[in-house]
Amino acid sequence: MKWFHRIITDPRSEDTIDFTLPIGENRPMTKPLPSSFYVSITGLKPKNFWATFLFWRHAIPSKMQADTAPGILFSDVRKINKIQHTLTAWESKEHMIKYIHSGHHLKALKAFKKIAVGKTFGFETDRIPSWDEVHDLWLKNGKEY
Questions:
Q1: Among 21, 24, 89, 127, which is disulfide-ready with 73 (CB 3.0 to 4.6 Å)?
Q2: CA angle 109, 41, 122 (to 5 degrees)
Q3: What are the DSSP calls for the chain, one per residue?
Q4: Which of these CATH numbers, 3.10.150.10, 3.30.70.100, 3.30.9.10, 1.10.1330.10, describes 3-8+37-144?
């Protein structure tokens, strides 16, 4: 198994965080998909070089939180055209909202305007879109923050 390892230091506070994650271990579907569920697509780009460190300091714990959040059906990440994208599928929009307003993701939300630009798009569906579809949907329908 390959591993992703990175130590990130915040230049202002000198705080460090050590990330070690298995590569290619994105959360597979763990149960059959319901006939309808909520998909969330996010695309973010750090504002500058220094913000990149803070971005990853929030992104990795948020991804780990998503992988075990109540109601999660699928979770994956990709970099497309220099934009970091997440694709998640949830049993309901309510499950997704509970996730984004808790734990590491809530900390990331509070730091967002200082470290990144981007947009999100969510919708009810009966299938998980392909990554080609994800990027097109995000470009056409994403709401900027």
A1: 89
A2: 90
A3: --EEEEEEE-TTT--EEEEEEETT------SPPPSSEEEEEEEEEESSHHHHHHHHHHHHHHHHHHHHSTTEEEEEEEEETTEEEEEEEES-HHHHHHHHTSHHHHHHHHHHHHHEEEEEEEEEESSPPPHHHHHHHHHHHPEE-
A4: 3.30.70.100
pLDDT in tens, 45-97: 999 989 999 999 999 999 999 999 999 999 999 999 989 999 999 999 999 99
> In which residue are the tokens 């990330």 written?
19
